[in-house]
Amino acid sequence: MKIYVINGPNLNMLGTREPEIYGKTSFENLLAEIHEKCHALGAECECFHSNHEGGIIDKLHNIHADTMSGRVNDIAGIILNAGAFTHYSYAIRDAVSAIEIPVIEVHISNVHKREEFRHKSVISAVCEGVLCGFGTAGYLMAAEYLISTRTKR
What is the pLDDT along the chain (153 residues), one digit of tens a residue? Predict the structure, then answer.
């Protein structure tokens, strides 16, 4: 079973970028925690990061192509933190909508307690669920959900 984690712009700056909002956990430590959690739950994990909208879209398309071709057979789902693209990228929204793989949208901060422009997600409507405000634990919660529901499908 496999989980994909896709991180968008500026998430590679975790631990140094606005630690009062995003915490002090480094990006590398977050990825290690996600890998450890997935492994403990019996799943493989592949993490991807891009500061570019097209990179995220290409990754979603490639995951879909791997599924359709049979190169990857047992995908539990995708954890997506699209960063600021969440609020305006209809292209990422359309890419998520085009694939038949469960996607959980994750945000480290509670976007609803922040600036008005962060309150709207154009991606949420095509995701299976949304986790925000739980810090980096949101990724672990999403992984646990996707793996547990995959074993029930």
Answer: 999 999 999 999 888 887 777 778 899 999 999 999 999 999 999 999 999 999 999 999 999 999 999 888 899 999 999 999 999 999 999 999 999 999 999 999 888 777 787 778 999 999 999 999 999 999 999 999 999 987 655
Answering whether pTM is above 0.85, one says yes
Active-site position among 35, 49, 64, 107 = 107
Query: What is the dotted CATH code of the domain comprising 7-150?
Result: 3.40.50.9100
Active site residue 107: yes
Enumerate the domain spans of the chain: 7-150
- H or E element, residue 76: strand 75-81
64 carries an active-site annotation? no
Choosing from 22, 35, 49, 64, which is the catalytic residue? 22
- Which of 18, 2, 150, 127 lies closest to 75 in space, CA to CA? 2
